[in-house]
Design brief:
This is WGS project CAFE00000000 data, contig bkir_c49. Pfam families: Cpta_toxin. It comes from Candidatus Paraburkholderia kirkii UZHbot1. The chain is α+β, with helices and mostly antiparallel strands and 159 residues long. It folds into 2 domains: 81 residues; 52 residues. The strands form 2 sheets. It has a 6-stranded antiparallel β-sheet with strand order 3-4-5-6-7-8. A hairpin with a 2-residue loop joins strand 4 and strand 5. The longest helix has 26 residues. The termini are far apart.
């Protein structure tokens, strides 16, 4: 069940079929690695600072553990709050959560970093702004390209 492109069969297993006409968003290894690196550097820095101040490894280890717990919980909650399916439309995006809730949003701005990450500023139905980070490895290349083009056009129209 793939798309035949000039004799090559491309499987797109992450494309949703059925009731949701969208693209399933996979967990991004790029973002998880970046978050893990940030948490590790922050915990190591706290350990070094506390150890230099108190010269007691037990206090430094406790401060490091608290930092790991606090900074480890926030990315976990953020990953769980990310949409699981994204639908591209000419008027904006439709996002589906893990619980099946659907929201329609409009793109108000964007930033793109070298084809790896796309940061979208979205307007929801209630007029609230929210940021959606889409890593290149969380969707297929064609969807990422379409999303980047749509985001640049929408951002240019808001200037």
């Amino acid at each position: 069940m793939g798309i035949d492109m000039m004799g090559a069969c491309v499987d797109r297993l992450h494309r949703e079929t059925g009731f949701t006409p969208g693209v399933a968003m996979r967990s991004s290894r790029f973002l998880r690695t970046a978050l893990l690196g940030f948490v590790s550097v922050a915990a190591g820095s706290v350990f070094q600072c506390v150890f230099a101040h108190t010269e007691h490894a037990g206090h430094a280890a406790l401060a490091c553990a608290v930092t790991l717990a606090a900074l480890g919980l926030a990315p976990y909650r953020w990953v769980r709050a990310q949409p699981t399916v994204i639908g591209l439309h000419s008027s904006g995006l439709t996002l589906w959560s893990r619980t099946g809730d659907m929201r329609h949003t409009h793109i108000a701005g964007c930033a793109q970093w070298s084809g790896w990450l796309l940061a979208l500023t979205l307007f929801g139905a209630r007029g609230r702004r929210e940021t959606l980070l889409v890593a290149a490895d969380s969707v297929d290349a064609d969807t990422f390209r379409q999303l980047a083009v749509q985001a640049r056009r929408a951002a240019a129209s808001h200037l």
